Amino acid sequence: MRIGIIGTGIMARGLGAHWARAGHELLIGGRSAAKAQDLARTLGARSGTPEEAALFGEATLLAVPYDAVAGVLASAGAGEGALRGRVLIDCTNAVGPGFLLTTGPGPGAARRIAAATGGRVVKAFSHVTGSLWQLPATGPTEAPHGSDAPHGSRAPEFPEGPLAVPLCGDDEAALDLVRTLVRDTGRVPLDGGGLERADQLEAATAFLIGLWKTGQDPRAMLPPYEAATA
Questions:
Q1: Which regions of the chain does DSSP assign to beta strands (E)?
Q2: Which end of the chain has less Cβ packing within 10 Å, N or C?
Q3: 4 with 27: CB under 8 angstroms?
Q4: Whole-model pTM?
């Protein structure tokens, strides 16, 4: 699969490494050309502009700070319909001071991206810290040819099982594509409902971040699945 990645930070680096190991062809588009080239070299990928990444392949990962998304998409021709119908994976978190959403009233980040682009947006990968995507999730593999990417290693095992990744979207084909990309990280896709539900996922993520950042464990508020569904 051909995947464009807009961004060069921890999310782009972590998810890109998994997808490169799975054999996908990547194009890294960064606001800094030097950083894009460095990450592309690490992953055995191509580098380019954010605009080129937005229009590359079957899917595009938006992995820039939320306040940069509008400018990136505008320069990629969102207003002229260039992104209409494209699969856009939104892993952004619009979380500001006080662990509150910066999107304010009305639609959340994913729905605003869908409205601005006409794209088939799937909210995914946003609910946990980016460092978790840098944990290995494959058996020993060869690094991508010509790259500096480390060889894969066994994924760490959590007592509850593999990490689940909630997906919210309205287009079944786009959701199915992203399910494949979730599995390629060694995680498990979780059906979160339509794109309207992304608003709830974004708010829940902001709440979780607030608990984690203040040294509290959100798992303590959740009963075991069997008890909750009894």
A1: 2-6, 25-29, 46-48, 59-62, 87-90, 95-96, 100-101, 120-123, 164-169, 188-191
A2: C
A3: yes
A4: 0.89
